[in-house]
């Protein structure tokens, strides 16, 4: 029987019968969880049709506002959408989506996202914090683990689009996501028309090239602030803008006039996009309603679905969709 | 970005590739030239001065000959995956057009904004 493939169970002699130590047990469980997570990440690649990363080099340019705006605009157009708020230390997407104080539902080891306005599914670190004033002080490896859990352990279901909102900069978070999540369509770089923000946006563009994730384009946020007024019909009106720059407009036959003031500079996002040869996706207006909406949990797109900001977002979404489509590569024969 | 004709065919040979454009123009670009002009953040600064550029050229030329896998990137670029050497660069169609026409794809500008 020496060559028999059948072995007999020996209850006394085999090392295999020794039960694993608690440490070995823990390692096995961890390895199993990692394997399951990796399989889940592959599954996510199939279930989620498009994955879009939203980045900026500089903080305060309105990334979360743009991420939520893109998600809501896509949902408004009838798509099933999710937002993954990867900003571990400053998560604020839930507040903007009217989900402040909500908790996540966990079932059979899978995390189920909360549902915000227009059915947009949301996952954020904010859901896991005991209170919003508690800071998250984590070093890189712990952040990495949390991000991988957010990707692999979440039951997103079938989605047309997953929008991933990042903290500013080009460090751990986008790197981890780019390496963990398969088939990312590309990055949207958010900037404001000021030199410091533009310089950092350029870094994000080169960063994306290093990660082999394409740049879908640059969005210029806080691009211009439009004021409107009423005066005598067909009268010339002079408005002093930032820096004393004078703007002259003529009111219409009802006496209405409007002027768009460049709070920062003008066209910087477009010129950065041109300089790097990446698409310019459009401009989003400076809209104080975003601040109020963010604080109240009712996004501008929800409160004013036909407003100027919602229209601007819809244009950016169209530009992103046309980038995701491969029409320019259609007809390209590669042999 | 200036208008360029649409790339309609890319044929990979052993050491170079043939590019055919919608306006009827045809070009051959060697893989050595393609890899030397890699636009990634690691390779680009190497072309900033003559000495490191020569070193990059030698490095590229010493790589074994291979046909790359070609991927389309969105609407605007191609990426080339090599078994050995750098595969990080995303080549915009404008860049390939410049290369095909024997122009400097960097437009004579040094690489400045490195993320690393």
Report Rg of chain B: 14 Å
The span between the termini of chain B is 27 Å
Q: Sketch the major β-sheet of chain A.
A: 8 strands, mixed
- The number of helical elements of chain A comes to 10
Could you name the CATH class of chain B? Alpha Beta
Going by CATH, the architecture of the largest domain in chain A would be: 3-Layer(aba) Sandwich
The helix content of chain B is 10-25%
Structural class, from helix and strand content of chain A?
alpha/beta
How would you sum up the global shape of chain A? elongated
Structural class of the secondary elements of chain B? alpha+beta
The total count of strands of chain A amounts to 15
Overall domain count of chain A: 2
CATH class of the largest domain in chain A: Alpha Beta
Greatest contact between two chains = A-B, 34 and 33 residues
Instruction: Specify the biggest β-sheet of chain B.
Output: 3 strands, antiparallel
Number of helices of chain B: 3
Give descriptors for this structure.
heterodimer, A: 335 residues, alpha/beta, Rossmann fold, 2 domains, 8-stranded mixed β-sheet, 15 strands, B: 116 residues, NE0471 N-terminal domain-like, 3-stranded antiparallel β-sheet, 3 helices, globular
Topology, element by element:
The complex is a heterodimer of chains A (335) and B (116).
Chain A: H1 22-47, E1 48-55, H2 63-76, E2 81-85, H3 93-96, E3 105-107, E4 110-112, E5 114-115, E6 121-124, H4 140-152, E7 159-165, H5 172-180, E8 186-191, H6 195-211, E9 215-220, E10 225-230, E11 236-240, E12 246-250, E13 256-261, H7 268-276, E14 280-283, H8 288-296, H9 300-303, H10 308-324, E15 333-334
Parallel strand pairs in A: 1-7, 1-8, 2-6, 2-7, 8-9, 9-14
Antiparallel strand pairs in A: 3-4, 5-6, 10-13, 11-12
Helix pairs in contact in A: 1-4, 2-10, 4-5, 6-7
Chain B: E1 7-12, E2 16-21, E3 26-30, H1 31-36, H2 50-61, E4 69-73, E5 77-81, E6 90-92, H3 93-100
Antiparallel strand pairs in B: 1-2, 2-3, 4-5, 5-6
